Amino acid sequence: xxxxxxxxxxxxxxxxxxxxxxxxxxxxxxxxxxxxxxxxxxxxxxxxxxxxxxxxxxxxxxxxxxxxxxxxxxxxxxxxxxxxxxxxxxxxxxxxxxxxxxxxxxxxxxxxxxxxxxxxxxxxxxxxxxxxxxxxxxxxxxxxxxxxxx
Amino acid sequence: xxxxxxxxxxxxxxxxxxxxxxxxxxxxxxxxxxxxxxxxxxxxxxxxxxxxxxxxxxxxxxxxxxxxxxxxxxxxxxxxxxxxxxxxxxxxxxxxxxxxxxxxxxxx
Lengths: 150, 108
Description:
CATH superfamily of chain A: START domain
Oligomer: heterodimer
Number of domains of chain B: 1
Strand order of the largest sheet of chain A: 1-2-8-7-6-5-4-3
Largest sheet of chain B: 3 strands, antiparallel
Structural class of chain B: alpha+beta
CATH topology of chain B: Arc Repressor Mutant, subunit A
CATH architecture of chain A: 2-Layer Sandwich
Strand order of the largest sheet of chain B: 1-3-2
CATH class of chain B: Mainly Alpha
Radius of gyration of chain B: 19 Å
Shape of chain B: elongated
Low-confidence stretches of chain B: none
Structural class of chain A: alpha+beta
Number of domains of chain A: 1
Helix content of chain A: 10-25%
């Protein structure tokens, strides 16, 4: 598994990759079926249809309602799934407005799954709270801040 | 960079009230203790104490003007934390662990 935080022009990405010993079709099910998505990611009303607006729901915290607004952008079974990932509620103005791309590549041993979350940008300068995913979210915001320091 | 630097930053920012004060300073620019107290929902001495801790960590800087001290955020002080953390990757790595365990169960 590899992971990296990479920087492009004005925004940043997080990349996490891992090889799983299963065929792409099986991973695709885990990425696109509600009950399965809930088991590893979050409660959701996802449908694998381009244009489908859905929500991911985590338990609310004092500074975050726990809701992430998403829209399906690309569905190419069993190769590529892309959706937007946007903060809601009080965090609309300052929270992450990002795009999550899952890419599945068949390998000898199974499937390489690559997740890239891109678009962490200057709008996060004000988002310092340890809300949502706790420190992870907090540090995502911090990364935006530091990325924009000269 | 000494290891103590991130430790101090973590400890400093672990307190939600202190973090909120820091956030407000980042959002609104320079503020007086009085203005910060109005927002913070705690007493002025408590706010002053939090500001002192933030200042020790290098996260804010105070400037006296007459009877009031004005504070300004120093977001540059956050830089060591960025190198130290896996950021959002930590979140996804953990979710990938869950995915792996789910895929195993799907086999059965």
